[in-house]
């Protein structure tokens, strides 16, 4: 169980709950042991601030100190990060994936959705049922014309991503983050996909253009991402091998064989069904699993930001100064 102990624009500093109490002069009420036990059992290492507020209600006034409660006091819509990605690992998947339910705040979500909506019409590429934007531009023969991402796609998402260590045991010199080994040590491309209810994306692999780390921020609504195996003959096994719920404001990171060996897709349905701890691999990490207690998720429009590092970058764009407007 973690509480915020302070805040920076990039990464709020987190403290283990235990250490907060070891610094306090007050003993912990036994009710709290029960609460913290429940919290740990439910969700790995962190819970929503709404739950935290409940918890703080039962604390004596001097425990914990107000500084540690800043996050809770600021309301339920703040971003909330673990101290490292390890705490967010989806442990029942065959290779590395992470799910962070509160990666951005409600206000940040609203600002990004506003910027997407304000983009000039030609920015949208209309597919048969879905529309998308690419930033800073489309790839040409798997190559990106060198140009910066606009500031509203850079901050807070990229800065926050790069501030998140892979594990807690890194010492001193800089954070070893999820893009530490990629060619540009950061994502340089964002695909924005908009999915109205009933619309998904066919099972596919993302291909050779990108470093095999995919960071997806979800906005607006929840839906299920399906992961598929190929059969031995190369054909797609139509039954998803695993399903991941992506809640609004969450970050999902997939890597390794999930990139190279498995396919991913979103069903063309108006409602996700059969949702439970047995069928959804990130159930213990969800912000609000209770919202899916009926086993159903009626779809609303969900927008995703897919951040990746394009391997090949052509300097021509930068030289012409074509894409430097933010
Ligand atoms: O929207 C998503 O979560 C998936 C998007 C995707 O797979 C893609 O654009 O390649
Ligand atoms: Fe994809």
Automatic annotation (TrEMBL):
Pfam families tied to this protein: 2OG-FeII_Oxy_2
Domain Fe2OG dioxygenase: 186-311
Location in the cell: Nucleus
GO cellular component: nucleus
GO MF term set: dioxygenase activity; metal ion binding
SUPFAM superfamilies reported for this sequence: Clavaminate synthase-like
Keywords recorded for this protein, A-Z: Dioxygenase, Iron, Metal-binding, Nucleus, Oxidoreductase
Thylakoid in keyword set: no
Primary location recorded for the protein, binned into one broad class: nucleus
Domain of life: Eukaryota
Transmembrane segment boundaries: none
Keyword Protein transport: no
Membership in a protein family: Belongs to the alkB family.
Name of the protein this chain belongs to: Alkylated DNA repair protein alkB like 6
Species: Trichoderma simmonsii
């Amino acid at each position: 169980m973690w509480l915020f102990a302070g805040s920076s624009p990039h990464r709020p500093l987190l403290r283990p709950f235990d250490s907060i109490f070891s610094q306090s002069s007050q003993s912990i009420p036994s009710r709290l042991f029960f609460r913290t036990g429940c919290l740990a059992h439910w969700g790995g290492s962190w819970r929503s601030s709404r739950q935290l507020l409940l918890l703080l209600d039962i604390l004596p006034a001097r425990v914990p100190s107000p500084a540690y409660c800043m996050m809770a006091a600021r309301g339920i819509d703040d971003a909330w990060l673990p101290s490292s990605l390890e705490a967010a690992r989806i442990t029942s998947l065959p290779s590395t994936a992470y799910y962070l339910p509160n990666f951005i705040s409600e206000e940040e979500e609203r600002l990004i959705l506003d910027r997407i909506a304000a983009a000039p019409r030609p920015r949208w590429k209309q597919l048969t049922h879905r529309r998308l934007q690419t930033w800073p531009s489309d790839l040409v023969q798997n190559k990106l014309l060198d140009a910066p991402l606009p500031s509203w796609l850079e901050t807070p998402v990229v800065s926050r991503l790069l501030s998140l260590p892979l594990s807690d045991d890194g010492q001193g010199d800089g954070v070893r983050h999820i893009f530490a080994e990629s060619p540009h040590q950061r994502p340089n491309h964002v695909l924005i996909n908009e999915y109205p209810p009933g619309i998904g994306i066919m099972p596919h692999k993302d291909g050779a253009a990108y470093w095999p780390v995919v960071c997806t921020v979800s906005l607006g609504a929840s839906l299920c991402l399906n992961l598929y195996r190929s059969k031995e003959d190369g054909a797609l096994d139509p039954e998803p091998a695993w399903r991941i719920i992506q809640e609004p404001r969450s970050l999902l990171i997939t890597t390794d064989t999930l990139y190279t060996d498995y396919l991913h897709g979103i069903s063309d349905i108006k409602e996700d069904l059969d949702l439970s701890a047995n069928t959804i691999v990130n159930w213990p990490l969800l912000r609000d699993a209770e919202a899916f207690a009926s086993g159903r998720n009626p779809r609303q429009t969900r927008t995703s930001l897919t951040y990746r590092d394009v391997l090949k970058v052509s300097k021509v764009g930068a030289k012409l100064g074509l894409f430097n407007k933010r």
